[in-house]
Amino acid sequence: MHNLDLDQERQIKKRRRLKKIGLIVGFLVLLSLLGGGFVLWQGDLLTALFSPISFVARLINPTKLKETDGRVNALILGLDTRANGGLLNTDTILVGSFSLSGGDPALISIPRDLWVSFATGGQGKINSAYAFAAVQLNGKIDEGKGVEAAKKMVEQVLGIPLHYWVVVGFEGFKEIIDTLGGIEVCVERTFDDYGYPVPGKENAPLSQRYEHLHFDKGCQKMNGERALKYSRSRRGIAGGEGSDFARVRRQQKVILAVKDKILSLSLLLNPGKVIKLYNQLTKTIKMNASLGETQRALELLYNFQDLEEVKTLVLDPESKLTYVGKPSLYGGAYILVPKGGNFDAIHKAVRELLFE
């Protein structure tokens, strides 16, 4: 009987360990799903992270992470690189934060249409901050300056320092979801999008440039291509689905669906598939963290964080922190204005999210 209890305890610990590994992979998948960037970081990170030599080195001299008030904050950018998508505009702007002492992780979504003042003068949507700084007078692109400008702008909006940045892409999006065998997504409302750009048709007759997307209300299985279109659609004509924050919420649905699929027992018991997913991710991510810092962050996430309890904040009108500005005051553009004309209320909400 005693041996049976020990076996049961071992099985429980094994399932918990597998689940934790799945949560970490899910967290990295989350990063890869939230942008439209370019293939950047190469190498087999899985081997580097968990090799015996690496493990011993970390025991002797563990890497310290940059942090403020016990939290590590990272900017997550996705660049829209479709030919007709606004090449240098940031398609998605997120901030991820986790506590060194084991508090809940947090994810903050910043709408691309948030109106801001740029350090170089002038005003515009926050999603153009990267482009304004990245494009040089000679026409060349300085990615580093673009990321730094976006980072400073987001720090100003949220009132917190950002220690790291990550640029991620949709290049592996369809492949990852298809590797999972598709995902289950519950669509909140039926909607149509008659203006979804068709890749490679930018110079075709107008009638051929766009695809009609239709999504029915209800839970349904989506393959990679379908999920990609669902999460990126921005011209829906029913129920407010054409807004930026509706798109952000759809992306969150897809992320949660991917997480649920990753945590399914069938996937966790298939090490080959987990490693395949992990290696797909390492080919679509660029970051300013060193390998040692990445190792340390993953170790902390593994040991202390419950990634099933991620606190979220979206700076859309529903949060009461922003409101839709009058188009006539902004050249006819759809924009979001911070409450009170400044970021004080946002700063307060962010600190409450992270520290209370």
Question: Can you give keywords for this protein?
Answer:
356 residues; alpha+beta; Nucleotidyltransferase, domain 5; Aminopeptidase; 2 domains; six-stranded mixed β-sheet; two-stranded antiparallel sheet; 14 strands; Cell envelope-related transcriptional attenuator domain-containing protein; LytR_CpsA_psr; transmembrane helix
Which strand order does the major sheet show?
A: 11-6-1-2-3-12
At the first level of CATH, what is the class of the largest domain?
Alpha Beta
Q: Quick one: biggest sheet?
A: 6 strands, mixed
Radius of gyration: 21 Å
Number of strands: 14
The level of helicity is 40-55%
User: DSSP strand (E) fraction?
Assistant: 15-25%
**Shape label:** globular
Give the helix/strand class: alpha+beta
CATH architecture title of the largest domain:
2-Layer Sandwich
Topology as a string of helices (H) and strands (E): HHHEEEEEHHEHEEEEHHHHEHEEEH
Average pLDDT over all residues: 75
Number of helices: 12
CATH fold call of the largest domain: Nucleotidyltransferase, domain 5
The figure for the number of domains is: 2
Terminal CA distance reads 45 Å
- Uncertain runs are 29-59
InterPro entries: LytR/CpsA/Psr_CW_biosynth, LytR_CpsA_psr
Family: Belongs to the LytR/CpsA/Psr (LCP) family.
Pfam families: LytR_cpsA_psr
Transmembrane segments: 21-41
Structure, described:
The protein is an alpha+beta fold. The chain has 2 domains: 30-170 and 287-355, Nucleotidyltransferase, domain 5 (2-Layer Sandwich); 173-259, LCP protein (Aminopeptidase). 41% of the residues lie in helices and 20% in strands. The strands form 5 sheets. A 6-stranded mixed β-sheet has the order 11-6-1-2-3-12, with helices on both faces. It has a two-stranded antiparallel sheet with strand order 4-5. Helix 6 (173-179) packs across helix 7. The longest helix is centred in the first third of the chain and has 32 residues, at 2-33. It is globular, with a radius of gyration of 21 Å. It starts with a helix and ends with a helix. Belongs to the LytR/CpsA/Psr (LCP) family. Keywords: Membrane, Transmembrane, Transmembrane helix.
